């Protein structure tokens, strides 16, 4: 099995469907004997440039360990899901389980409040 980092952006008007989309991805991964090492919901964030006339999107990051056929299934899910604006799947050398810098910043902001 290989390690992958998956990031996808969801249309901001459908932020309530984020949990449903995440559950669908989890189901695909677990049905194909995959492992989720890290799952982070970054929330709604400003885009660097507009996509389909949108200025914000809801971001989700996953680090997974799956066989390449599972990646094909995830890509198909992303392609045919109208709520997902963009996605990126990167092959990694090892599993990453530590929080991302974005989550560390969110945690620091919560601690200050």
Automatic annotation (TrEMBL):
Q: Which Pfam families match?
A: Ribosomal_S6
Q: Which PROSITE patterns match?
A: RIBOSOMAL_S6
- Gene3D superfamilies on file: 3.30.70.60
Keywords assigned by UniProt, alphabetized: Ribonucleoprotein, Ribosomal protein, RNA-binding, rRNA-binding
> Superkingdom of this entry's organism?
Bacteria
The record's listing under CDD domains reads: bS6
Q: Does the keyword Glycosyltransferase apply?
A: no
GO MF term (any one):
structural constituent of ribosome
Q: Mind telling me which GO cellular component terms the entry cites?
A: cytoplasm; small ribosomal subunit
Biological processes annotated in GO = translation
UniProt keyword Ribosomal protein present: yes
Classification via PANTHER family: MITOCHONDRIAL 28S RIBOSOMAL PROTEIN S6, SMALL RIBOSOMAL SUBUNIT PROTEIN BS6M
Member of which family? Answer: Belongs to the bacterial ribosomal protein bS6 family.
Name the NCBIfam families for this protein: S6 (TIGR00166)
**Briefly, what is this protein's role?**
Binds together with bS18 to 16S ribosomal RNA.
Protein's recorded name: Small ribosomal subunit protein bS6
Give the species.
Buchnera aphidicola (Hyadaphis tataricae)
Q: Which gene encodes it?
A: rpsF
């Amino acid at each position: 099995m290989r390690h992958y980092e998956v990031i996808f952006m969801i249309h901001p008007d459908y932020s309530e469907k984020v949990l449903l989309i995440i559950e669908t991805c989890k189901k695909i991964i677990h049905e194909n004997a995959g492992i989720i090492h890290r799952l982070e919901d970054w929330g709604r964030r400003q885009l660097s440039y507009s996509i389909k006339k949108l200025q914000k999107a809801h971001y989700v990051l996953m680090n997974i360990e799956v066989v390449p056929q599972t990646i094909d299934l995830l890509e198909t899910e992303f392609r045919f899901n109208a709520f997902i604006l963009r996605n990126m799947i990167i092959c990694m050398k090892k599993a990453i389980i530590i929080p991302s810098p974005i989550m560390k910043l969110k945690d620091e902001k919560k601690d200050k409040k």
